[in-house]
Write a structure and sequence with these properties.
FAD/NAD(P)-binding domain, alpha/beta, five-stranded parallel beta sheet, binds flavin-adenine dinucleotide
Length: 549
């Protein structure tokens, strides 16, 4: 009888335990969980603060009793594993009553997760400074709000921070968001975040970018956050959402290999440097599916899938994790942002060459009521068009497009494949040329050399001599906002007014989203203006880079 011991009973650990049972009815499976709950919905916690998810027991996806009854798993809650003795293949544990003991394993699976960062700042231990990971954490936050907290400061504008901000606002709490970087949601490229940060501000949230919390000080019955700029933010409640660090103490003490950011190193079968010990979830360092470099991405999808693979390996079934793609989504204040694969920042860091295509289509046929615009940025290899990443921001339909591209990336597809993918269409769901196809058309056209394109960066940093900026939209559109220095000549008049354009000078055409600019480029290229290029994604992309104040 195989003895499988698992540390951590939530996403990765519970997945590993239940799959191991399905694969091996005779195995002895012992699951240790330090906290009182197993298999709870971490991802639902912010929505419990906002009262969107109620009652509280909706957060319990499963319970220790269910895991015992249905899966015959020996679940030990409030029981912490304190050490691993690799030579004897035993773990040491301590139960809530202080009793200690040992449990022997043939295979040990570590899924202890990642702990919220709490940097050693003055006052960080004040009771009003909270983090969000467990049900106990959410009880504290919800308790403070229920008790009448009126002002909150959320430090860190990542996924959890933003979800918390939305839910606090939903509860009528006046909220300030403080972020060290010059953008919200640092995994995304900055310009993609523009519509969401605008929506957050329009919801009445003060968003302080490029700011950091330096200290927390008692302030009457509440607490004040002192910022690096010297500003002081009085609050009733402070929540830190500044990232997580892998819970690697057990692994490090046992001499298992870890990466530079502390993730436990695993191979594709989720084996650590000790083949009898597997690891999965937020505690591991895996492979980045795009760049091939190390990846440490704390997301529930990877944790659950890795848990299954760890169980396969534990039960001697060949299985391999394909690497982490970083497919993620967040919604707040009616805006949705999603991404998959590498961002432009990540590609620059990895030294991977890339090209961009921007489209700004409606999420379904524009003539059908309720169409909402989205902005979709596709990153692909300039040689061969391999898909490298995509990011989108908008309302409905953003999730679908990023999911489609996520699958395309995993399948090793190219921009040329996106031209061809056949997606479901009726006017209330999509378009005959879906936004995914549109991104493929633009990218493939660039790869074929059909339409030279420049990026916003090329006109933001004026070249010498500066290009002639040609706005081919209508005068009405031009009047509503245009790129400084541009000349308006509507596309429908272009053929008759070519003599107004400078010969021998580079021309950058643009329209609202790139389509008429593309057409203008084709006209000019064939009319004696060989140095013409279209501004990728047009004025809409330029606006993302240069938001209205
Ligand atoms: P966890 O789920 O954290 O489980 C680890 C468990 O191990 C913990 O319960 C811990 O108590 C226990 N443990 C640790 N050490 C020991 C020990 N020595 N002995 C016994 N037990 C131990 N991801 C998404 O993809 N989408 C989302 O929308 C999303 N929202 C989130 C919202 C919040 C508020 C949080 C906190 C996370 C969110 N995540 C989301 C991330 C996702 O929840 C994690 O990636 C996932 O839970 C990781 O699973 P895990 O098994 O590695 O760790």
């Amino acid at each position: 009888m195989k003895r499988i011991v698992i540390v951590g009973g939530v996403a990765g650990g519970a997945s590993a335990a239940t799959r191991a049972r399905r694969l091996d009815e005779r195995a002895r499976i012992v699951l240790f969980e330090r906290g009182p709950d197993v298999s709870f919905a971490n991802c639902g916690l912010p929505y419990y603060v906002g009262g969107v998810i109620a009652p509280r027991d909706k957060l319990l996806v499963s319970t220790a009793a269910k895991l015992r009854a249905r899966f015959a798993i020996d679940v030990r809650t409030r029981c912490e594993v304190t050490a691993i003795d690799r030579a004897r293949k035993v773990v040491r544990f301590r139960a809530a009553d202080g009793a200690e003991g040992e449990e022997a394993y043939d295979v040990l699976i570590l899924s202890p997760g990642a702990a919220p960062l709490r940097p050693p700042l003055p006052g960080i231990d004040h009771a009003g400074v909270m983090v969000l990971r467990s049900l106990q954490d959410v009880d504290r936050i919800r308790g403070a709000v229920d008790a009448g907290a009126r002002r909150a400061v959320v430090v860190g504008a990542g996924f959890i921070g933003l979800e918390l901000v939305e839910n606090l606002v939903h509860r009528g709490v006046s909220t300030t968001l403080v972020e060290l970087q010059d953008q919200i949601l640092p995994p995304f490229d900055r310009e993609v975040t523009t519509p969401l940060v605008t929506a957050v501000r329009e919801a009445g949230v003060e968003v302080l970018l490029g700011e950091s919390a330096e200290a927390f000080e008692p302030d009457g019955a509440g607490i004040a956050v002192r910022l690096a700029s010297g500003r002081r933010l009085p609050a009733d409640l402070v929540i830190l959402g500044i990232g997580v660090r892998p819970e690697n103490a057990l692994a490090v003490a046992a001499g298992l290999e870890t990466g530079p950011r502390g993730g436990i190193r695993v191979d594709a079968a989720m084996r650590t440097s000790d083949p009898a010990i597997l690891a999965c979830g937020d505690c591991v360092e895996t492979r980045d599916a795009i760049t091939g470099g190390p990846a440490q991405v704390p997301l529930a999808g990877p944790a659950n899938r890795q848990g299954r693979i760890a169980a396969d390996t534990a039960c001697a079934r060949p299985a391999a994790y394909r690497g982490t793609q970083g497919t993620a989504i967040v919604g707040a204040f009616g805006r949705t942002m999603a991404m998959t694969g590498a961002s432009e920042k990540a590609l620059l860091r990895a030294g991977t060459p890339f090209a961009r295509a921007w489209v700004h289509p409606a999420h379904h046929a524009s003539y059908y009521p309720g169409a909402e615009p989205m902005s979709l940025k596709l990153l692909f290899s300039p040689q061969g068009g391999r898909l490298l990443g995509a990011q989108a921001v908008g309302g409905p339909g953003v999730d679908k497009r990023i999911d489609v591209i996520a699958v395309a990336i995993q399948a090793g597809m190219t921009a040329f494949d996106l031209e061809q993918v056949e997606l479901c269409y009726a006017p209330q769901y999509g378009s005959a040329k879906d936004p995914v196809n549109m991104a493929g058309f633009v990218a493939a056209g660039l790869l074929r050399g059909d339409h030279p394109q420049v990026d916003v960066g090329a006109i933001a940093t004026p070249a010498t001599p500066a290009p002639f900026l040609l706005d081919v939209r209508t005068p009405q559109e031009h009047a509503l906002g245009s790129i400084p220095g541009s000349v308006n000549l509507p596309i429908d008049d272009l053929r008759d007014r070519l003599d107004e354009l400078p010969r021998g000078r580079s021309i950058v055409t643009y329209c609202q989203v790139g389509m008429r600019g593309y057409l203008a480029t084709r006209i000019l290229l064939q009319s004696g203006f060989p140095q013409t290029a279209n501004l990728g994604g047009g004025y809409a992309t330029w606006r993302l880079h240069h938001p209205a104040p």
